């Protein structure tokens, strides 16, 4: 390498070399070296971020996967795989699509409009077509339904009725909707200790995250000249970051978390930062196991390198900002368990936060807020074109038209609950989650709690070779519980809500019974065991799971 450098630095050698070549050959050679150098730099950055061991492992996995995919093209193997996939499709349709002669299907518009009485009656009929297990009111759910109570539901419906036809795309026609949206953003900014910040509403946590990625991509391109952006994301961060990166063409470096604390590996984050890095990500709290990344250290790294730090509080939403006031942020056992670390805009380096109002804010589904440290950063989220023949087009987020009724419902929910209501809700829900976590730790020796979750989510894995935790999850499903299965490591989680509060003792009793059932009489046939076992079976396992997931999505649109 040193000899090449010396040759390139000698002007006589370089001049003589260029004289003997035509301009076309010189351009071709320059283009070749440009390609080699740029690809080499990409390779070096990739290896630096992933590490040599993980890079070699990824290469081996990819090679092994290609071999298996070739083997799957053998007609006899392909036939067997297709039979299994067809069986999976029928199983999915059997669980989601009502069957039988009594099921009415409305596939074309009726010739004449139906009465309100008929419509309500038909809705009641459809509600019961899949049986009572589909009734969310029994409360045996992990998250999914964030119900603030019947009185709040009536308040939200009244707001819907008043603003049914409203659209914030026309603020001059619906000035109250514009005002309510601005006030929702303002309330959330103050809740996260940034009253002078900026933000917008979105349709949910995924859109908030996608908008943040778009913002940093455009900011980095304009301010730093970055055209091949990269972001560094903990393995436990929400899948919406991968989705947003795919949409916005941003490369993702997925960084592992500590197996004990479940916090992102800071050493690996530091190593992954390079000149193309536009964004670091941390969670407070993450969806899989409810733990929190070290936002303070991530903030120091972001500030040092002049890059963004997005804190995903979509799930923490109206829980984590109230833990301190509720006297729960210091955790238990002198801070040894469940301690909450700083996470909001008071942390130097935090530049944006996403917060779902439709979770523990008890607002109607389809509402979230993305917040920025200042309005200058928010401007990169906007889409504006002055060249459309229909006039100047400007929108703050992905959607053009948006349902003003959702904004009104969100505003109404926040006014109805107030700080005292959210504080009470936080205290009750987090106490419920900690009761479950402590019981697992102290009374169910086959299981362990992942990390030290400070908020509303508890994930548990198996520390007994005799117990498959996904068998436990399947046994809980038979008892009517709708829980979430996890991988890396294999685990099951529950996100506690107000619906969980009266059922905490039932959950614990059912969990103990399910552990014994999984230990003494495992079936090996449940959904969690089958699906997640397939995903871990071989390098092509995730591809097979993706095919099953595609079938699931197709089934959603089977009338």
- Beta-strand fraction estimate: 5-15%
Number of helical regions: 18
Query: Radius of gyration over alpha carbons?
Result: 27 Å
**How far is it from the N-terminal to the C-terminal residue, by CA?**
65 Å
Structure description:
- With 559 residues, the protein is of the alpha/beta class.
- The chain contains 18 helices and 13 strands.
- A 7-stranded mixed sheet has the order 1-7-6-5-4-2-3, sandwiched between helices. The chain has a 4-stranded antiparallel sheet with strand order 10-11-13-12. It has a two-stranded antiparallel sheet with strand order 8-9.
- The longest helix is centred in the C-terminal third of the chain and has 40 residues, at 404-443.
- The protein is globular and about 90 Å long.
- Mean pLDDT is 91; it is low at 4-8.
Topology:
Elements: H1 2-9, H2 11-19, H3 23-50, H4 52-71, H5 75-96, H6 116-127, H7 150-162, H8 175-191, E1 198-202, H9 205-223, E2 230-234, H10 240-248, E3 251-255, H11 266-272, E4 277-283, H12 295-305, E5 308-312, E6 352-355, E7 368-372, H13 375-378, E8 383-385, E9 393-395, H14 404-443, E10 447-449, E11 457-462, H15 469-478, E12 484-486, E13 491-495, H16 504-520, H17 527-535, H18 541-556
Parallel strand pairs: 2-3, 2-4, 4-5, 5-6
Antiparallel strand pairs: 1-7, 6-7, 8-9, 10-11, 11-13, 12-13
Helix pairs in contact: 3-4, 3-11, 5-18, 7-14, 8-14, 9-10, 15-16, 15-17, 17-18
